[in-house]
Amino acid sequence: MARRAASAHKPRGRASGPAAAAAAPQAWPSDAEQTLAALRSGLIDALVIPAGPGDHVYALRTFDEIEAANQKLLDSQERLLALVNERERLMQDLHDGCIQSIYAVGLSLEECRRLIREDPKHAARTVADAQASLNLVIQELRSFISGNSPPTAIDLAAELERIGHATRAHVPLFKVEVDRSVAAALAPESAVQLLQIAREGVSNIVRHAKAGSARISLRLRADKVELAIVDDGVGFDPHAPKGTGLGLHHIAARVQKLAGRLRLTSTRMKGSRIVVEIAGSR
Fold it and tell me: I need a surface site. Which of 137, 158, 191, 239 has the fewest CB within 10 A?
């Protein structure tokens, strides 16, 4: 319902004589000019135009209402973008966290098939490690379902060594070199991100590299924490489109979260290097 109305008629009364002559240069605004001025100032939300015996009423919206509608649209777009980003984050965490953990457990259990006869005690320890890893995966999945953030406190050195241990029954054989003091000094979030990067890198090597040997190292170099995953396999194309290297895309996204630097180098039939550098302080 209109709160105010503006008529398209000009005022009927005008001055005459000398006064009119003096006021002549100040022409009265036209109907269109009056209407535009009223609209721009937000004074009207309905326009009444006389037409013969009746009037035509045109409903209009004030500029405040238009701006409010535009703001609601912008808010909806921001909420949609936030949901898309959250979906991307959950997919990345599931892929790099839970899925890679389950894959590592699978490698450990494959090793048990050989160890059951050769070294039953070692096989029992491997099964215990696999069970502990699965319990962590269950906790992570419960956290995702409940909407709570997964726990971030981890022993990075022990987890990296566990990754190397899980691949012993496979080619390549991984050598793990970890400076425990560097690992212990990392912020919890940094430790989690580096662990997920290492898991992804190792998974890629085991599945695709066809390498004879590989290495995981964590050390301090020139006041930067450096994580390196190196192999002597067939190599890969660091510039391949994202769709052909989802794991590398996830590694790059995690390095970006850490405000770090990622170096991917690979030579055909001579292996590859994934090197991540982040700030050494918490």
Answer: 239
